[in-house]
From TrEMBL:
Keywords: Hydrolase, NAD. InterPro entries: TIR_dom (IPR000157), Toll_tir_struct_dom_sf (IPR035897). It catalyses: NAD(+) + H2O = ADP-D-ribose + nicotinamide + H(+). It holds the Pfam family TIR. This is ADP-ribosyl cyclase/cyclic ADP-ribose hydrolase. GO terms for molecular function: NAD+ nucleosidase activity, cyclic ADP-ribose generating. Its EC number is 3.2.2.6. PANTHER family: TIR DOMAIN-CONTAINING PROTEIN (PTHR32009:SF39), TMV RESISTANCE PROTEIN N-LIKE (PTHR32009).
Length: 115
């Protein structure tokens, strides 16, 4: 697979998060900050309607320059979040994690699940 140039990415950032943990708090605030700064951000509730395939999410990961998982308390217990994270690792994406204080234990789970 050829590496894409910065201009060929659809998104600057793929924001991965556990919706029930952070969607209406930290993630909304962080998303709005990035968008206001002119950063092209993919987040699932912005780009996809209910019921759309995970393939579209995986394609968005592939077409993002940076992946930014928000590691919250429930991130590692979400099959979707772990699937997204595994795809980031598989594609050797640049990963810039945001670790919330409630998500410290989540990091060990993620680390062991992607090895």
């Amino acid at each position: 697979m050829a590496l894409a140039t910065a201009e060929s990415y659809d998104y600057d950032v793929f924001l991965s998060f556990r919706g029930t943990d952070t969607r209406h708090g930290f993630t909304d605030c962080h998303y709005n900050f990035m968008v206001d700064a002119g950063i092209r951000v993919f987040r699932d509730d912005d780009e996809l309607s209910v019921g759309q395939q995970i393939n579209k999410i995986l394609l968005a990961i592939e077409n993002s320059r940076i992946c930014m998982p928000v590691l919250s308390r429930g991130f590692a217990s979400s099959t979707w979040c772990l699937h997204e994270f595994a795809k980031m690792v598989e594609l050797r994406k640049e990963i810039v994690p945001i670790m919330l204080s409630s998500g410290l234990r989540c990091m060990e789970t993620i680390w062991t699940s992607t090895r």
